[in-house]
Known about the structure:
Bound molecules: NADP nicotinamide-adenine-dinucleotide phosphate
Distance between the termini: 45 Å
Number of domains: 1
Amino acid sequence: MNEAVLILGATSAIARATAVSFASRGDSLYLASRDEDELRRISTDLRLRFGVEVHFGLFDAEATETHDTFFKSIVAVMPNLSGVVLAFGYLGDQVAARDFSVGAKVIAINFTGAVSILNICANYFEQKKSGFIIGIASVAGDRGRQSNYVYGAAKGALSLYLQGLRNRLCANGVRVITIKPGFVDTGMTYGLPGLFLVASPHSIGECIVSSLNKSADIVYLPWFWRYIMLIIKHIPEPIFKRMKL
Ligand SMILES: NC(=O)c1ccc[n+]([C@@H]2O[C@H](COP(=O)([O-])OP(=O)(O)OC[C@H]3O[C@@H](n4cnc5c(N)ncnc54)[C@H](OP(=O)(O)O)[C@@H]3O)[C@@H](O)[C@H]2O)c1
């Protein structure tokens, strides 16, 4: 049976690739982000290329007071909604560590906004006793590093939240999958120094969709990041604190 999937942050490079992968299977989509023109373009492209049903609508992760109405409007046009992919994210920059107004935005988008909308989705799927939630966290959430620890802290908190949600929803037949990408070639990482083993959004999008056919709850993408992070997490703190990462 085909899925009907809401993608939050649908203009992101990883989300676009994920949408293509869903559409190529014949799944219906609801694409949401803050950029209406871009959403229209992506939707038209997917409809033309794959002949699938694609809706779109405006969504701002920071405007948590709008999330309830937003979700109701989706279910109204897509009553068979069967899954959600949370793809939005905001890296901020180095300033986030020193300027709280920037750090607060990083937390508001990556964590508070995510919890707000996923709570609503979770209640909906819990009542239906079916569905899936795929949350894109990050390897950055596995250990705090001086280069991006506010973003890392928000993504780490999102990973813990998704873990709790998985524990809550498991008995109700709702799947919660945590995706932890390493470096991916997108606007978010463009021009950043020190990147290595950079993956294409296309390969990440395909793996996100195929994770639904596998049993893993936490998926590192590409797979080898599980082992890189295993090593990084085991470096003793007295050594780690002196490293330039
Ligand atoms: N690229 C990487 O190396 C990497 C690594 C690990 C994890 N990730 C995570 O993977 C996900 C996708 O990343 P990406 O690199 O593909 O992103 P991207 O191309 O930089 O796009 C970021 C997306 O976040 C959306 N967004 C930002 N602020 C928002 C807000 N307030 N409300 C709603 N949407 C908002 C943007 O949508 P609009 O501006 O259109 O609203 C855009 O679609 C993110 O969660 C990111 O943290 C990325």
